[in-house]
Design brief:
167 residues; elongated; 6 helices
Length: 167
């Protein structure tokens, strides 16, 4: 198995962070729309709020790095954290709990990436920035976990009970 390649400099980490935050912004906008369409405005509001935070983070990074040449991030460098099967397209969630699960997965992948960078980088500035980004993602994870805890479980049907008896 090959070794993961992690950013070694701030410009490399900024390039990665820009990609991560841009994708998170898109994902939360998709989830917000899906929840509005489903009439789940309380979740749409939460997803919208987190999405705005992701967009603000992206914009702050964009402004802070404007005029600096950042290295391009090859798509394969994300494989160990952000890989999706070929031709995979995100689908509309079928329930509130599934939507929250998709949002949690997005945030946990980003957090895991930043934690890995913070733990393995040899440059103190890279470690500090990655740790700060991981902490931001952790705040989102906690918010989403609280939402999930408040969201009722799907009601079990008689068919579900019959299936459990047959096993």
């Amino acid at each position: 198995m090959g070794t993961r390649l992690l950013p070694r400099s701030l410009p490399e980490l900024f390039s990665h962070a820009l990609m991560i935050e841009r994708e998170a912004t898109k994902r939360f906008a998709e989830l917000e729309r899906a929840m509005r369409d489903a009439g789940l405005d309380h979740l749409a509001e939460e997803f919208g709020s987190i999405g705005r935070e992701e967009r603000e983070q992206f914009e702050a990074l964009s402004v802070g790095t404007a005029g600096h040449e950042l290295p391009e991030v090859p798509a394969w460098e994300f494989d160990s954290y952000f890989r999706a099967p070929a031709n995979w397209k995100p689908r509309k969630p079928r329930s509130a709990r599934e939507a929250i699960g998709l949002a949690l997965a997005t945030e946990r992948r980003a957090q895991n990436f930043y934690v890995d960078v913070a733990e393995h980088a040899t440059d103190d500035a890279v470690c500090a920035f990655a740790a700060e980004m991981a902490a931001d993602e952790q705040r989102h994870v906690q918010r989403l976990e609280e939402l999930l805890a408040r969201e009722p479980q799907a009601a079990k049907s008689a068919d579900d009970d019959a299936e459990l008896v047959r096993r």
